[in-house]
Design a protein that fits this description.
Length: 401
């Protein structure tokens, strides 16, 4: 009965219409979410784009020996890993070995023979058998062996004429190939009895220098990354490969402008090499990292994108069917620059890469090995770190996507 305008009547929407609207909105939201996927390169398998996964997690801890300098790690199972290097005790350098029973959370020292000065590489094929190589206190290449899980380490067969052994890869408990050197010359040696004796094989290509960890996909096919000199104190990246177990070696064809390379690994025909854009071979110069990719088992190589803000890559490990992890060193601003470790991971055969989260990683990382697709251990300086990689059932978004 008032004189003002009449209030509009309230409209009642039928319940059936509300349900239809909600169904349409839900379908639209599902369509939008299904398009939030990773754009993979043409080399990736089509039809396998999935939503973003959590990043891998790297958690570091100091080694029980603060004087240690780790150089290599090998994990024959997800739980058991060995790390080797050297430690300086009162000015005396001694070989250093540690082992974990729980995937890298707790470590126990093991005793290397007293005649070993440093160990540069280790390869374990079971939870009881390992071969490691390095340099003796007399400046000669040396091998050490264990068949009881590291309770005892013994000197292996002699490596005649070599002053250092830089890397080793064992495909079985008895069959191993190692890279040794004397002066500017490097060559491979092999054993068929677990390191009790070694046979000299072929020379690496002339000028090949700075060999990194040896990678063998079989007893015949092996690759090793390094560089060849191009000027005083400078080099360009190089990869030497063999298809006959080390009898002959040849240089792979690489793109122009590649810096020093530090590591290489393969998954079937996919091979990835890592290193630095720096060409200085006399010292570690902070520089952008470098990533090379081959889709034909190393016959041809091409550069791949490298993430901004990350520096030198040193180690890589790949686990079938699709996982690879790269570790390295980035440099925090300071005088001098302060090294800190990083990791990037792929779970789709290098279709894309994702930067891992890190906790307590105070040193650069130089080596990594994975006992399974999900569990890896990385080392560098006096630090060991666990690396947990997300499930391959979810595709990561990130670098290269």
């Amino acid at each position: 009965m008032g004189d003002g305008p009449a209030e509009p009547a309230t409209r009642c929407i039928p319940r059936s219409r509300v349900v239809v609207v909600l169904v349409v909105l839900a379908a639209l939201l599902t369509t939008i979410l299904s398009t939030v996927t990773v754009a993979t390169p043409s080399s990736a398998t089509p039809g396998h784009r999935r939503k973003q996964s959590p990043a891998a997690l790297v958690v570091g801890q100091p080694s029980p020996s603060i004087a240690a300098r780790a150089s290599s790690v090998s994990c024959p199972t997800p739980q058991r890993c060995w790390v080797v290097g050297s430690e300086d005790l009162g000015g005396i350098r001694k070989a250093w070995i540690e082992m974990t029973h729980d995937g890298g959370f707790a470590w126990r020292p093991q005793r290397a023979p007293a005649s070993v000065s440093t160990l540069s590489s280790i390869s374990c094929t079971s939870d009881s058998g390992c071969v490691a190589v390095g340099t003796s206190t007399e400046g000669q290449a040396i091998t050490v062996l264990t068949r009881d899980g590291g309770s005892t380490w013994t000197i292996g067969g002699p490596l005649a004429g070599a002053s250092e052994a830089t890397s080793v890869d064992c495909r079985t408990v008895f069959t191993c190939i190692a890279i040794v050197a004397s002066g500017a010359a490097s060559w491979s040696v092999r054993t068929g009895n677990g390191g009790l004796s070694w046979q000299r094989d072929g020379d690496l290509p002339p000028g090949f220098s700075g060999p990194g960890p040896l990678f063998c996909s079989s007893t015949e096919r092996c690759l090793v990354a390094g560089y060849t000199p191009i000027a005083p104190a400078r080099g360009t990246g190089a990869i030497a490969s063999t298809a006959d177990g080390g009898s002959t070696w040849a240089l792979d064809a690489l793109p122009q402008g590649v810096g020093l390379l530090h590591g290489v690994a393969c998954l079937a025909n996919l091979c990835i090499a890592v290193g630095t854009a720096s060409t200085t071979d006399t010292a570690v110069i902070p520089a952008k990292g470098m990533l090379l990719r081959s889709d034909d088992a190393g016959r041809t190589w091409a550069t791949s994108p490298w993430p901004a803000g990350l520096s030198d890559a040193f180690g890589i490990n790949c686990v079938a069917p699709a996982t690879c992890v790269v570790v390295g060193t980035s440099w925090l601003t300071g005088r001098p620059a302060i090294p800190t470790g990083f990791a990037i991971t792929t779970i789709n055969r290098a279709g894309s890469w994702q930067l891992a989260r890190t906790r307590y990683v105070a040193n650069g990382l130089v080596s990594i090995d994975c006992g399974s697709q999900a569990a890896c251990v990385a080392v560098g300086g006096s630090e060991v770190a666990t690396v947990r990689v997300p499930s391959a059932s979810v595709q990561p978004a990130g670098i290269g996507s």
